[in-house]
Amino acid sequence: MFFFVATLSGKVAIVTGSGRGIGEAIARLFAERGAMVTVTGRTAAEVGQVAGAIVAGGGAALAVTADIGEAGTAARLVDETVARFGRLDILVHNAGLFPYDPIESMTDEAWLRVLDVNLTGAFRLLKAGVPHLKPRGGRILFTSSVQGNRAAVPGCAHYAASKAGLNGLIRAAALELARHGITVNGVEPGLVLTAEVARSIPPERRERMAAAVPQRRWALPMEVAEAMLFLASDEAAYVTGQTLVLDGGATLPVFGG
C-alpha cells in the first residue's frame, strides 16, 4: 500500500498573498512539512501573525510586507529570502485581486491593477526567482482559477483574463525551464470557503452556490494547500506545465437528465 507523505524538509519557499486565506494555508502546511517560508502580503499585521504562528510551532518563517503588484517587489522578496535562508527552492504566487467591475463601467486603472497583481506579479516573481532555482532545480506554482479557463462570472472580466493568462504563462514557462529541472504548475480552485468569503457572502447564498457543485460543498483553503504540497514535492518531479482543477466537479459537463 502506498502512502503519500510529502516532505519539504530543508526547502525554502516564498508564498505571496499568505497573510490570510488560501495563501496562509499553503504557508502553514509547507512549514509544517519542513520548509522555511517567506510569508508575504500587503497587511503587516496579518503577515506577522502567520509568520509568528509558524515560528511558535517550531518552524522557520520570514515576514515581508509587500505589494506584489508593484514593480521591484518580486526582486526584493527573492533577495530578502535568499539573504535570510541562503537559498530558494519553491515559488508560490497566490496573491490575487477579485473585485467586481462590470465591463461598461470598468476603468483602465481597475483593469490594470488586477492584471498587475494577478498576472504581471506572477511573471516578475518567476523572472526574479529563476536564477536562484537553476542550480538545484525547483518548483514554481500558481494559484489560478476555473474562472477564465473553464467558467465565467459577470463583472469579473479582468480577473478571468488574468487567470487565463496565468495558465498560458504556466505552459510557456514549463517548456522554457524544463531543461533546468524546474517544474511550473498551477491549481485551479472553484469555490473556496475562506474567512473573507464567509464574512462577505451570507450563509443562505453560500448554500445556494454549494448546491450547484456536484459535491454539494465549498472547498476548504487547506484542500488547495494540499494540492500545492503535492506539486511542490519530489513526488511531482515529472509533472510540469499542468493545472490541477479543484472544484468538486463543478465544471464537469452534464449529459442527459
Could you provide a short overview of the structure?
The protein is of the alpha/beta class.
N-to-C order of helices and strands: EHEHEHEHEHEHHHE
How many domains, as an integer?
1
How would you classify the quaternary structure? single chain
Distance between the termini: 38 Å
Radius of gyration in whole Å, from Cα?
A: 18 Å
Q: What's the arrangement of strands in the largest beta sheet?
A: 3-2-1-4-5-6-7
The top-level CATH class is Alpha Beta
CATH topology: Rossmann fold
Notes on the protein architecture:
There is one protein chain. The protein has eight helices and seven strands; from the N terminus they run E-H-E-H-E-H-E-H-E-H-E-H-H-H-E. The protein has helices at residues 21-32, 44-56, 73-85, 108-133, 157-177, 195-200, 203-211, 221-232, and strands spanning 12-16, 36-41, 60-65, 90-93, 138-143, 182-189, 242-246. Strands 3-2-1-4-5-6-7 form a seven-stranded parallel sheet, with helices on both faces. Strand 4 (90-93), helix 4 and strand 5 (138-143) form a beta-alpha-beta unit. The mean pLDDT is 96.
